[in-house]
Design brief:
Blueprint: E1 10-13, E2 16-18, E3 24-27, E4 30-35, E5 51-58, E6 61-62, E7 66-69, E8 74-78, E9 85-86, E10 97-102, E11 105-110, E12 123-125, E13 137-140, E14 143-146
Parallel strand pairs: 8-9
Antiparallel strand pairs: 1-12, 1-13, 2-11, 3-4, 3-12, 4-5, 5-6, 5-7, 8-10, 10-11, 13-14
């Protein structure tokens, strides 16, 4: 697996974002891939937004797929041993991001519950067109960009 700085594609730095079908999030040196279709795990043939399938990709360790259920308030993701979703990645913050279910929608937020942002950010893979907004930070290959409208 290539580091985001060595790979292809465009990633948008997010503070808070919806999790769509097949969203890919990059944190530290790890990728989080999401799906509402649990057939990828051969456990269920029904699509539902009440639960979310998560697969973690990291070149140093193999992770079992995780099913997130809406009944939990939120899931913390990070390198802290007490994170709900622990990822062994030194480039992650102790709590890098929060995944939560709100008003029938799964969302992801950079940082911890108190609002403290992660050190290296939470990055959404731009697999569709996105409108560029003022002060948007995105990266493509090895280059970072910050949009500025005067």
């Amino acid at each position: 697996m290539k580091n985001i700085d060595e790979g292809f594609g465009t990633y948008i730095k997010i503070d808070n974002s919806l999790i769509k079908e097949k969203s890919i999030i990059y944190i530290g040196n790890s990728y989080l891939a999401f799906s509402y279709d649990l057939r990828f795990n051969n456990q269920n043939n029904n699509k539902t937004k009440n639960q979310l399938f998560l697969k973690i990709f990291n070149e140093n360790k193999k992770y079992e797929p995780i099913i997130l259920k809406k009944e939990n308030n939120y899931y913390s993701v990070g390198r802290a041993k007490n994170a709900d979703i622990f990822i062994d990645d030194n480039f992650l913050s102790k709590i890098n991001c929060i995944i939560y279910f709100e008003n029938g929608i799964w969302k992801i937020k950079d940082g911890d519950q108190s609002g403290k942002k992660s050190t290296n950010g939470t990055w959404l893979y731009a697999f569709e067109d996105y409108e560029i907004y003022d002060n948007m930070i995105f990266k493509s290959n090895k280059y970072n960009f910050n949009s500025y409208f005067s």
